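re: ur question from yesterday

yeah so i grabbed the chain u mentioned. its 85 aa long if i counted rite. heres the sequnce exactly as i have it in my notes:
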Amino acid sequence: MDKTIKLRVKKEIDNNDELKVLKLKGTLISKGYTEIIHIADENEDFYLNSFSTSPENKKEAEHFVLDYISDNNLKDTITLVSTKN
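ran it thru and got these structure tokens back, copy pasting raw so excuse formatting
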């Protein structure tokens, strides 16, 4: 059964951070963690981006996202939302 990973992404960001967010999403797809990323409005300030990955890739994908956020100074832009599955 696939596992879902959710990211909370701030809506109002500058062009530089927007490019970094797009690069993260593209890299998640190109590394084979997922084939599609779903985007929904969470509220007026944030989008909720979610994608499914295989159980054996879940921890690796989460670590990749956290490292990417840290390495690209996106702590105020993207948050990994914990999920129970």
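noticed a couple things. The two ends are 10 Å apart (CA to CA). also DSSP finds two helices and four strands in the chain.
anyway ttyl
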